[in-house]
Design a protein that fits this description.
The structure holds two protein chains of two kinds. Helices cover 54% and strands 14% of the residues of chain A. Chain A is an alpha+beta fold. In chain A, strand 2 and strand 3 form a beta hairpin. In chain A, helix 11 runs antiparallel to helix 12. The two termini of chain A are 15 Å apart. Chain B is α/β, with parallel strands linked by helices. Chain B has a nine-stranded mixed beta sheet, sandwiched between helices. The radius of gyration of chain B is 21 Å and the shape is globular. The chains are: A alpha+beta, B alpha/beta.
Chain lengths: 425, 254
Amino acid sequence: MLARRVCQLQSAVKLSLRHSVAPGSRASLAAKNFSTASEGGLCFELSDDQRNLQELARKFTAEEVVPKAAEWDKNGTFPKEALNKAWELGLLNAHIPAEYGGLGLGIVDTCLISEAFAYGCSGFSTAANANDLGQVPVIVAGTADQKAKYLGRCTEKFTFCSYAVTEPVAGSDVAGIQTKAVKKGDKWILNGQKMWITGSGYANWFFVLARTDLSPNAPAGKAFTAFIVERDWKGVNVGRKEWNMGQRASDTRGITFEDVEIPDENRLGEVGSGFKIAMTTFDSTRPPVAAGAVGLAQRAHDEALKYALQRKTMGKAIIEHQAVAMMIADMATGIEASRLLTYKAATIIDSGKRNTLYASMAKAMAADVANKAATDAVQIFGGNGFNSEYPVEKLMRDAKIFQIYEGTAQIQRMIIARELATKAK
Amino acid sequence: MSSGYRVMVGVKRVVDFAVKIRVRPDKLGVETAGVKQAMNPFDEIAVEEAIRLREKGHAAEVVAVSMGPTVCQETLRTALAMGADRAIHVETTKELQPLAVAKLFEKLALKEKADLVVLGKQAIDDDSNVTGQMLAGLLRWPQATFLSKLSVSGDKTALEAVREVDGGLQTLHVPLPAVVSCDLRLNEPRFATLPNIMKAKKKPIDKQTPESLGVDVTPRLQTVSVDEPPPRKAGVKLETVQDLVDNLKKGGMI
């Protein structure tokens, strides 16, 4: 029963977006040809532009992120300066349409950047990706005025935004959120609590999902509305920085909304369409998060390989011991597979088609691969791996969250199964 | 020279500095096939300096030049992305040695009416460190090599150039037109921003060949063999200072 409803929702989302989407945004994405397909069909090479972008992102990461990552991790320092430099280079606003000051690039390009950043530090890439997450709903469902105002803020000056949906009582169960927005005249009064909101300590504005239909049997597809809430408004209280297992450079906090007055012009999309907007966002943001996991896994692999070539036990380099060699082989295979899945998911959405199945597959697989790769990297380093002077224990701590945020490993599998079941009917 | 002069910058595509290089099986060079390539680091410094001259209002135009096969255009795109205004690609598949390069630059500098040619002090693949010097000789222009600091004289007809030499730092007054070569501490090259990388695609790259410039690029030097350095031999551990002195004496070192 629930499965059918969610499937209906997914198709409803697809249909309704065609009507409610502000003219130009999705259509212009579809009109651009992001395909790197060669004449013969499949193509696994990057275009010249993509290679240049990747090189810039990698060079930046090597010079500005890698040398500082350990220090950020140790102190939980938000990498504001490095993010500012990335912003100046255009690396943070690549996906914002050109008419609002961005570069109008696609999700593939965002993935290339995310993977490069995460190779250096996935806390840094998460801090950078938080902006994506806040901006995509506005790109997808905002009016021209809303886009010009809020996307413009992020492109004119170095500004952050966040995506505030999760609550202490509801993470996977988005339909169970309790934050309420009640209409009073031409304003909405917002009350509630959000939790684990990435970037909230520095965000200038938030995408907020709130319950607007309080009747007990209101379906998820009608009960929620999306809003753009400014941090400076009265009643918005951002909590303290949470100290997490890993990705400590990233900033996660709780937010409380106490009788916050939201003008109706800050309502994003139609009343009741919030759930669809929140879910559709993931089609664009899951691939970059998956790419981040791939970047971390690649780093784990590179560190482990380098170590295995130098470290000697029982008369030879440890890579000559099959037990170690098998782990590295599996790491590399998993990385290659999850990378291809990630870029496929990104390519599909860039060509204007729905990518939900592949986005979930990519995110699920990349997160699992990253965790295994990081754990095995620590194993290969042995006692040294457990020690904070070596880079791999941080990778293991950082990797875990990839199986949790942006849709847990379990939720991804539910989505995949439902997509498959729907297709098969 | 009125303000607003034309600066020509040379950029060479070389094996990336971070790559672990291997000698080719035929022992006539280093393996370059499938190996990551990039702009010569000293040339990045040269491009950066040329752009700074334009940003300070001294130069009106920065022209990037690269010589070699088609793929050199990637290096020119990098220079354009950093801020060069236009580029010239001298296309050839023949081996280019420093004298040939200097002759090609001579023709281009005169053809384009350059007021200043800025080169990296040497390329990290052949470490020749002669192109700038030979070019200045061919043009009979003043030269300042191993630059660690560059500024323009008050009346803008000359450069004040600080060179790193064995004894320390030497300051030269260099009337324009001139040839300079850049050393490591001159500046820190900027990242090309993503918008500039995209804009660079629209900037023009003019095509030339050694034939169109009337230069014979036949190599004058022949590489006889290339070998890896001999593996480091183990040292000898000594117990006392007296042992050390004895061993040094025995080896004829003191």
